[in-house]
Amino acid sequence: MNTTAPAPAPLEGFGDDPWWLIGGKVIAVFAFLVVTVLMTMWIERRVIGRMQLRVGPNRTGPFGLLQGLADGVKLALKEDIVPRQVDKVVFVLAPVMSAVPAFISFAIIPFGPRVSIFGHETALQLTDLPVAVLLVLAMSSMGIYGVVLAGWSSMSPYSLLGGLRSSAQMISYEIAMGLSFVAVFMFAGSMSTSDIVAAQDDKWFVILLLPSFIVYVVTMMGESNRIPFDLPEGEGELVGGFHTEYSSLKFAMFFLAEYINLTTLSALATTLFLGGWRAPWPISTVWEGSNSGWWPILWFLVKVFLFIFFFIWLRGTLPRVRYDQLMKLGWKVLMPFSLGWILLVATIRALRNDGYDMRQIVIVAAVAAAVVLVATLVWEMARGGEDDKEIVPGATDPGGRPDPAAGGFPVPPMDAPHYHGTGGKPSGASTLRTPPEEVTSGTH
Question: Which spans are transmembrane here (predicted)?
Fold first, then answer.
């Protein structure tokens, strides 16, 4: 992909802007995130409404565009209920700890190349670091503290279980996400987001590192706590999860953090794998000035909103997975695959540097990957899903089925008599009568 973009600014150039320009960038990033949240809420309701053959928001504002703003005003005016038994200090700080890192993560995302603003040349990026991508991982880990502390401070079993699920989910999926970045760092030779975008001048990393891109897409769904991986908020199991006891502005901050993380994950995927702010292939070859000036902001926004639409499409399509399936996918599939892929990429890079023929290297690598994949499938078929056939200690069923009460839980037996009709008689059994000595006039 041939482009005419100017050379990226050196990393040392960040931080030399005047105070008014830095303040303007901060305000612009904050306003962009808030407006994107409102637009994402509207798009999500309209898209899922169309997918479910129903009408989306269409009352508040033209085409319902102001529905998100109306929801924000409603949450701000609702009564702020604080349960009596909560740890009030932690209960109040938890939403802040979840929302603030979400804003900080977007500081290292490049929107475009260097431009001139009121006569001062600057990059369309708030800041950059030698380890900028690691800042996003660190901030996402800090955001989980808000979720865990919200569940712990609520003094509710549902909230506590939601917080614990979120911490386990973050550990399992953030490791795989970090491993998916390693191949990008190898090809770009840097962890700086501006350098990574500059390294995709010729070809996007989604083509060169497709397995890393697939792993990242799966892990970013786990990091966002959205369907099909919204186990910390499982309404059917945990009422509302970690934010069950929250209302008013505190709940709104958790809501805001979720959608900002959605935007950040989409922008990070665009930066690392889709060329960042660079124009796609047909436009960049036909139009020489497509990657200069202010036009790259348009390409960046199109890619980000396509990713957001992908999130929304998954929410309206897929059901929620079981928790054991979620953990198995993270620990037994994504992590081993990512480690094997990193070793393969490192080997190919080393052989290429030694002057070996790349065509032979790719053929051998493809054959090796196919052999490993087939061996893994054969192994799983030979085992026959033994993970789902675990025997509970103390099981006495000779057929291999676990005893329902062996784990200590009072589970009724499966062959208990079933009652039908209004006569109170069990199917195939005689009438059961309560002994007179067990009948009392008060509470039993």
Answer: 20-43, 89-111, 131-152, 173-192, 204-222, 251-274, 294-313, 333-352, 358-379
